[in-house]
Write a structure and sequence with these properties.
With 384 residues, the protein is an alpha/beta fold. The protein is 48% helix and 16% strand. The protein contains 14 helices and 14 strands. The radius of gyration is 35 Å and the shape is elongated.
Length: 384
């Protein structure tokens, strides 16, 4: 939209991605097709790739370019929610995506057969294979964006609607469009490891808040972390089984302290957390894996914190009350007056003077111990 408004001669997208959501890809491609400004997609720098959804974006561009040492392809569709797809639905998804890729390739004059192979057979292509194919998959091999602009000078570009335009890029004013701060933050949050960390911290924070209502800070921080984690998990291929295993692990660790299991529940909780973390992101791509170096420390840390906190809570529940009538039981005091058996006298305890009956004779000045409280009367006996 900015390029169209400014009357730009060309807009170049530098692309490096393992893939993404098909719906988002269609939105991006629709914007490329509808743009008044010619669009070039440059897969680079060297060593990068545009796989899966990135391959479809490359094919949809007016100009497809790649840097040396890059590759594109492997565009077979997969489920993004971690659920197993039945054979019929998998064939439908693959056929639909292949048809979409073919229509893009046909309209752009690119190799339809290779495009279909990339979708149906997950085939990938190096920049040389893509460039030397007949017809080719890409238009230009360039080392970087300045080199690309130089090679595109004077080239006639055929737009998606059939119209043509000649690129005049000599001495062009190149403007770099970077992500905004908000976009960079959201992009960082959508990283699998950050999403996993937010999920565990959010769950831990809310658990602490439920144990200690009114603590406020754990609940607020936990809620924010969980909401950010849910945002990130929307755009990541998440396995529901992994999420359920993480939840089960937290429950088992809490039950370990309240139920005598001789460590069985604790071991099960840690194992559930560990395997749930491994299964959380359902993708074979290395870029989307969380990694054992992060899973193991977080799993052990969360398990240790939960067990420690639950032990504190149980210990606090087992302590006798220190306030109210229950807090008076077993308190030691001193008889201010003598008390006859079945009679009433005055005692001092807990910093206060009380009226107290006793079942045994107690002399003035003797130590007494509270055995019962009824209203404003304390029942006492001699302190042992």
């Amino acid at each position: 939209a900015r390029a169209d408004a400014d009357g730009a001669a060309l807009i170049v997208f530098t692309l490096q991605t393992p893939g993404g959501l098909l719906d988002s890809t269609r939105d991006i491609n629709n914007a490329i097709i509808a743009a008044k400004t010619p669009v070039a997609v440059f897969v680079g720098p060297a060593g990068k790739r545009a796989a899966s959804a990135g391959f479809l974006i490359t094919i949809a561009a007016d100009i497809a370019a790649m840097a040396p040492g890059t590759h594109i392809g492997a565009a077979h569709p997969v489920a993004g929610n971690g659920e197993k797809i039945d054979d019929t639905m998998a064939k439908k998804m693959a056929s639909d995506t292949a048809a979409y890729a073919r229509t893009l390739a046909t309209q752009r004059g690119r190799n339809v057969a290779l495009v279909e192979q990339a979708v149906l057979e997950s085939r990938s292509f190096t920049e040389q294979e893509a460039s030397t194919a007949s017809p080719p998959l890409i238009d230009v091999i360039a080392s970087d964006v300045p080199d690309l602009l130089q090679k595109l000078e004077g080239r006639t570009v055929r737009r998606f609607n059939g119209s043509t335009s000649v690129l005049k890029l000599a001495n062009a004013d190149v403007r770099h469009v970077e992500m905004t701060l908000a976009q960079r933050i959201l992009s960082a949050i959508a990283h699998p490891q950050i999403a996993y960390l937010l999920l565990t911290l959010g769950t831990l924070g809310l658990t602490i808040e439920l144990w200690s209502p009114g603590a406020v800070v754990p609940g607020v921080v936990g809620g924010i972390c969980l909401l950010l984690a849910f945002f990130a998990l929307q755009v990541l291929p998440v396995s529901y089984a992994g999420v359920l295993l993480i939840a089960l692990g937290l429950v088992l660790l809490i039950l370990e302290v309240k139920i005598t299991s001789f460590g069985v529940l604790a071991v099960g909780g840690v194992a559930s957390l560990f395997f749930g973390s491994l299964m959380l992101i359902d993708s074979p791509l290395p870029e989307l894996q969380i990694g054992l170096r992060m899973i193991v420390p977080i799993t052990l840390s969360v398990a240790g914190i939960l067990i420690f906190l639950v032990q504190l809570a149980v210990r606090a529940q087992q302590q006798r009350a220190v306030t109210g009538e229950a807090g008076m039981i077993d308190e030691v005091g001193r008889a201010l007056t003598s008390i006859d058996p079945g009679g009433v006298g005055r005692v001092q305890t807990h910093g206060e003077i009380w009226t107290a009956p006793a079942a045994e004779p107690i002399a003035a000045g003797e130590k007494v111990q509270v055995v019962d409280v009824k209203g404003l009367l304390l029942t006492v006996r001699r302190s042992v």
